[in-house]
Amino acid sequence: MSNEVAGDYRLIWFQHLSKSAGTSIVELAMANDEKFYPQHSNGNPRNNDGTLIRFWDMDSYQLRKFVDECEHEGITFVATEWGAPDFSALASDPRVTLITCLRDPLERFMSNYYYGFYLGYTDCPSPESYANSEKTFWGTYTRSNYYCRIFSRCHHETKVIGLCQFELAKTNLAYFDYCVLISGKESFKHLKSAFGWKGDGTHANRTNLDAMTLSRHILTGKFHLLWRRFAYPKKPPGSEFVNHFSEKNVWDYKLMKEAQNHAAD
User: Fold this and answer.
1) pLDDT for the residue numbered 114
2) Residues 96, 64: Cα–Cα separation, whole Å
3) Rounded CA separation 122/58 (Å)
4) pLDDT number for residue 203
5) What is the number of other CB atoms lying within 10 angstroms of the CB of residue 210?
6) In what order do the strands lie in the sheet with 11-15?
7) What is the C-alpha separation between 7 and 109, in angstroms, rounded?
8) For 181-191, what is each residue's pLDDT tens digit?
9) How far apart are CA 153 and CA 166, in angstroms?
10) Contacts of 44 (CB under 8 A, 6+ apart)
11) Residue 219's pLDDT is what?
12) Strand pairing of 44-45 and 178-181?
């Protein structure tokens, strides 16, 4: 089944932000028969050899050629999760519909921490130690002002985010056709209405200890990960960390206000 609008080709380009309900949107698109790239990871296109396609390294001409390829192959949904493409170039292409999804910065960070800690992606024993702990290219999601890093396309840098990056992030966010803010079961109603999608798009929380997770850890001998869940149960951050986080992520909170205004348009 095709989800093209009025017979015209359109490509949904989803900027996925870590632990901001992105996988729920990917699965919702998949459940509604959007066509994904032949090889992909959670919607992120891969080359024939399995390597990730690095859209953030592409110029406007290369991005347009990729959209040409998608149109030729009937691809209708693409996600970028570990970097940010040239949003202005994509926005200038009438075939592309830009969408993204954000949640409260602290809620996102805490979710990302427990996800990484319980599944063994980090050994940091606390949210405090996790903040800014990962300095590699893929560790952008641990750094302060994560949203501004992505939308200003400074995701590969460890420098401090300031007014310049915030203004660029605000400009790029304005290119998006749909900016979803997580606010409960009706968060995706505008996307579903725009694209004719059905369903709730609820992705299972992998930090919950269900029977499948329990069995997988036992079968793979990862008993230390089971121990972590009991020794370090999820809990709300303390007031001291909340205040510290707010101070260090002031630009992300400003960008969230811009996103709220954008979502209300």
Assistant:
1) 94
2) 10
3) 31
4) 53
5) 11
6) 77-80, 11-15, 96-102, 178-181
7) 41
8) 987 667 888 89
9) 11
10) 16, 52, 53, 79, 80, 81, 82
11) 79
12) unpaired
Q: Please, what is the average pLDDT of the chain? A: 89
Our count of domains for the chain comes to 1
Instruction: Give residue for tokens 């968060």.
Output: 187
Of 138, 133, 108, 137, nearest in space to 123 by CA: 133
In a domain, 4, yes or no: no
Domain CATH number, residue 105: 3.40.50
Domain-located, residue 113: yes
Residue 131 and residue 245 in contact, taking contact as beta carbons nearer than 8 Å: yes
What residue type is 148 in one-letter code?
C
User: Domain for residue 2, yes or no?
Assistant: no
User: Where is average pLDDT lowest: 87-91, 208-212, 250-254?
Assistant: 208-212
Look at residue 216 and tell me whether its pLDDT is greater than 80.
no
Cβ-count burial of 217 within 10 angstroms (0-12 exposed, 13-18 middle, 19+ buried)? buried
* Domain span at 138: 11-264
Question: Residue 5 falls within a domain, yes or no?
Answer: no
90 in Cβ contact with 63 (< 8 Å) = yes
- For β-strands 44-45 and 11-15, DSSP reports them as unpaired
pLDDT of residue 265: 65
The predicted pLDDT at position 2 comes to 40
Two tokens at 146? 């994560």
Model confidence at 30, pLDDT cuts 50, 70, 90, reads very high
